[in-house]
Amino acid sequence: MTLAACGGSSSTPVTSHQVTVSWAANHEKGVNSTGGGYKVNVAGKPTIDVPYVSGPAAPTSTDLTLTSGSYGVTVIAYALLDAQGGSTGSQSAASQAYVINVP
Amino acid sequence: MTRTISAALIAALLTLSAGPAAAALSVPRLPGEAEAVPGELIVKFKPGVAATGRDASLAAAGHSTISTMGALGAEGWALVRVAPGQTDAQALAAYAGDPRVEFAEPNYIYRASRAPPGARFYGQQWGWKNSGQTVGTTHTQPTGSPVDYTIHNPGTTGSDMNLEKAWDQITDCSSVVVAVVDTGVNYTHVDLAANMWNGGGSSPRHGYNFADATPTDDPMDLNGHGTHVAGTIGATGAGVTGVCWKATIMAVRVLGADGSGALSGIIQGIDYAVTNHAKVINMSLGGPGFSAVYNSAIERAQAADVLVVVAAGNDGTNNEATPVYPCNFANPNLICVAALDQAFGLADFSNFGATSVDVGAPGTNIVSTYTGPKFDDPLDSTTIPSWSFSTSTAGGGWSTSNPTITPNMLVVPANFDTSTPGSYKNNTDDRAWRTYTQAGLRLGSMSFGVVFDIANGDHFRSAWSSTGSDPFGPGGHVVSDDTNVKTFPYFSNMSIDFSGCGGATCTFGVQFQSDVNAQTSAGLGVGLVSLGTVRTPGTDYNTENGTSMASPAVAGLATMLRAWHGPAFTAADVIGAIKGGGRPNAALAGKTTSGKSADAMGALAFINPPSGVTATVR
Predict the structure, then answer these.
(1) Which residue spans within B473-617 are E strands per DSSP?
(2) Strand B307-311 to B280-283 pairing
(3) Residues in chain B with pLDDT < 50?
(4) Can you point out the beta strands (E) in B135-273?
């Protein structure tokens, strides 16, 4: 999709694209059950929550719209169980960063 | 109780709603799955959301208020009933986009932290629950000697594997087969029999025996080491409690009654475990030699996604400088374990290694199952009359040691002791033997200590016989023969297979023989004689020290993790969880790859970082 910037005929058009970020499924039970899931961090953008909904596993992809540029993306997995046996939650370290180049 | 006040409040709420709660208890759930009251959620509204807004949210979700949870209602809490037929996931999803809701979660059921049901020696199992207790001798050894690791006994409260919290999540690991590749297992033991693997017609005794020249289908433990290891992994709680209360333990005998075994048997044992679908292998054994064949067996386990847990070694040395195998193999499916004392210090005997040893686990004064009682021969006035002696005319024969020396020893020459070296005569042949009988038991091993200073060409030998007479005569079997060795003034521990007599009676003997050459060596002493037996059905327990005891603690945890997360949880996932979820320990910093002690609850809750992130631009 091409969007025209307002206010002048000489402006450069801003291009945005649909982007699908995907990752390998985590194997922890808590990630793939109620209260678990993933958080996707795209540089400069709000964190995207990808919670477990139903079935055997949490989703392992999410769609977003990005304009031209390069974006670092990381994924964190989370679950309800904490290291003291409570349900305050735990999360993983971030995945290795992947750079998205949007033309 | 280890739960918090808020958990107690929830429990109280359940008491108030006895009808639905009682129904909840009968709802089937997966092992380890959090239990919740069906049809109920707890919803927390954001601060400032008025009652009309809360009602609108509940109406949109199709839910209704059960309670505003007393004083908590003012803070925006509500206990709600979900729409008929909704699953928990569907009910929770109903609030996913609601800006008025801070969060919603199932109405979980909490219980008092689980402690093992009545294990006789649980109070001694500091590695599971360290309350600062002193570990004593409250085991069933008829002549049990005191625990011999005195550093940090008692230790430090809380220096343990945090298992009681983990047991709130899971105690049943039976969905995962764990192989004990060791001296075998007393599969009749009251604390193990119910947790042994069913090998079907080809392995009717729960495993296999590769320790003898001809493999057999009987992996009975004639030493005790493997049974001790098995109990740490999966004792049922009759006397001691394993990391797993329910387990599927495969007995793979690759070490004999003397505690040693050939590589050929070890390789066959690993392959047997892999072929028969073990997913965790514990190998509390080690040696200095690198072997490509050995390594290839670990690689075959790796190809089958089998995790191999091994001991670091008991030399108190750095494995980076003096490698120990299998610990020093670099396979990604292998995790190597150091031993910790009761204050979570590195045990003084434990090997370590910044790139080869991975984590620490309890390894001193560990009480666990044993294959049978041990009987010490104190070599004092009560037992010396039971010994027979013979000597050549040239030698002075065996003597009992100076009574000021501890322990008592049989010595050659008569004035030998560990502070005043003697000088034995040449051309001697001195023998001593004793016949042991333990009715109702099977004899397994004979262990003893020898202080050596003998010259080249002179010999110390040990032997057994079923004839009841001199075991160095007709019908005897010489099982060790040492020459040109000096350990003086220290004991060298030796152990021999004493099962050859095949019953409850057998004769053990020692011989010193010198040649005709004059020499000035001091002589030798034999002491610390202890007879190991096998009892079936097994009812015995023993306290042991070693990285051999630390390794199965981690193997049990690995088994628990694989059972908890399910079959998709890989060996690499397990290692990531044990190392990542461990407890930082300064005693292990720079001496292990993680610098951490194994922590069961931490490992259960640990989440490995996601991998394989990619993106598609359209």
Answers:
(1) 476-497, 505-513, 523-534, 540-544, 583-584, 596-597, 614-617
(2) parallel
(3) 1-34, 111-113, 138-144
(4) 172-182, 207-209, 246-253
Cα distance between residue B458 and residue B476, in whole Å:
20
Q: How far off is chain A from B449, nearest CA to CA, in Å?
A: 46
As to burial, measured by CB atoms within 10 angstroms (0-12 exposed, 13-18 middle, 19+ buried), residue B90 is middle
Q: What is the second-level CATH architecture of the domain B5-108?
A: 2-Layer Sandwich (3.30)
| Interface residue B87 vs chain A (CB under 8 A) | yes
- B175 lies within 8 A of chain A by CB: no
Chain B, residues 237-296, CB within 8 A of chain A, namely none
Q: Do B605 and A90 touch (CB under 8 A)?
A: yes
- Give me the residue label for tokens 């360290």: B130
d(C-alpha B145, C-alpha B542), whole Å: 10
Residue range(s) occupied by CATH 3.40.50.200 in chain B: 169-372+541-605
* Nearest-CA distance B575 → chain A (Å): 13
Q: Report ipTM for this prediction.
A: 0.91
First to last CA, chain B: 55
As a whole number of angstroms, the distance between CA A38 and CA A41 comes to 10
Return d(Cα B369, Cα B232) in angstroms, integer.
8
Q: What is the pLDDT of residues A15-66, one digit of tens each?
A: 899 999 999 999 999 999 999 999 999 999 999 999 999 999 999 999 999 9
- The residue among B174, B300, B182, B184 whose CA lies nearest residue B236 is B174
B564 to chain A: closest CA residue: A29
Pick A16-102's CATH classification: 3.30.2410, 2.60.40, 1.10.3470, 3.30.479.
Answer: 2.60.40
Q: Which residues of A touch B566 (CB under 8 A)?
A: 27, 29
CATH architecture of the region B169-372+541-605: 3-Layer(aba) Sandwich (3.40)
Q: Is the dihedral of CA B269, B178, B558, A35 positive or negative?
A: positive
Question: Phi and psi at residue B60, in whole multiples of 5°?
Answer: -65, -30
Joined together, the tokens standing for residue B453 give 């200073």
Write down the pLDDT at residue B415: 77
Say whether pLDDT at A4 is over 90. no
Q: Which ranges of A5-44 does DSSP label H, i.e. alpha helix?
A: none
Measured CA distances, B150 to B18, B128, B134, B153, B545 (Å): 52, 19, 10, 6, 11
CB of B4 less than 8 A from some CB of A: yes
Contacts of B570 in chain A (CB under 8 A): 27
Q: Which residues pair with A69 in a beta bridge?
A: A102
CB-based contact B320:B293 (threshold 8 Å): no
Q: What span, in angstroms and rounded, lies between the C-alpha atoms of B593 and B354?
A: 5
CB contact under 8 A, A95 and B573: no
Domain at B374-534, CATH homologous superfamily: Galactose-binding domain-like (2.60.120.260)
